Amino acid sequence: MNKFDFSGKTILVVEDAETSNRFFEAALGRTNASLLWAEDGKDAIDIFDNNHVDLILLDLNLLSTNGFEVLKHVRDKGSKVPVLVQTAYVLAGEEKTSFELGADAFIAKPIKLNQLMETIDELLKK
What we know:
Layout: E1 10-14, H1 18-29, E2 34-38, H2 41-50, E3 55-59, H3 67-76, E4 83-87, H4 94-100, E5 105-108, H5 113-125
Parallel strand pairs: 1-2, 1-3, 3-4, 4-5
Helix pairs in contact: 2-3
């Protein structure tokens, strides 16, 4: 039995690494959430602007438009949609900058499945 049921919720996954996408697909695929996918920041902004999104799972290190630019765009639009930032290469200041730009949570890779699911659950309940 699945502990997490995100029926009726739409999650935008912004990630350019295929292995991470497979992980997120396996993890979130069992939750009944609708998943939208973007491989770069430009696509993420386009998808966000043209769809209802309940949560954004956002990688920072993207080709073209990076995650910080996506996060800034979302907040500049006045959106309060929860943003969970995740990154493989935690550079000095990335977590601080993420929160300053309006991120709701931050997870460093490698991501622990339970931590991911608990964090998403908490953010969707806010």
